[in-house]
């Protein structure tokens, strides 16, 4: 019986390992994939390019990172959310907002060891990505 294009593409163990990692951890960037599966960076880059060319993965550049997602599993909103939640500060902001709905900026900033401008920057990314909403109260 003839193999499918996906079966042929995943015959190599390294490529299969990379593909399975991206499926289980969508939105992971190149260096994180390399660290987690412990293969040389050049090998990981080569196989990721191959999988993108074979339309098994999609590559999305966000800022300085190339992030990888399985084809057809996530829409653009999901990809943006996954990308933001893979970053420590945005993830911590979302968790704090989930535990404290309606919290103000001053209360939100407590416990974060970053400047107010850094926190504001990450909040703006979350608002722009439609992960959180900004509601002005008072003045």
TrEMBL record:
Residues 13-81 form the HVO-0163 N-terminal HTH domain. InterPro entries: ArsR-like_HTH, HTH_HVO_0163_N, WH-like_DNA-bd_sf, WH_DNA-bd_sf. PANTHER family: HTH ARSR-TYPE DOMAIN-CONTAINING PROTEIN, TRANSCRIPTIONAL REGULATOR, TRMB. This is HVO-0163 N-terminal HTH domain-containing protein.
């Amino acid at each position: 019986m003839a193999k499918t294009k996906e079966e042929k593409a995943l015959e190599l163990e390294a490529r299969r390992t990379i593909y399975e990692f991206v499926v289980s951890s969508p939105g992971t960037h190149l260096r994180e994939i390399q660290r987690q599966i412990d293969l040389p960076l050049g090998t990981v880059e080569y196989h990721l390019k191959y999988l993108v060319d074979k339309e098994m993965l999609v590559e999305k550049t966000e800022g300085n990172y190339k992030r990888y997602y399985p084809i057809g599993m996530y829409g653009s909103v999901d990809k943006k959310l996954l990308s933001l939640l893979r970053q420590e500060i945005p993830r911590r902001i979302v968790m704090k907002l989930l535990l404290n709905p309606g919290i103000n900026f001053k209360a939100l900033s407590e416990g974060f060891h970053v400047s107010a401008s850094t926190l504001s920057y990450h909040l703006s990314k979350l608002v722009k990505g439609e992960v959180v909403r900004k509601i002005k109260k008072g003045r």
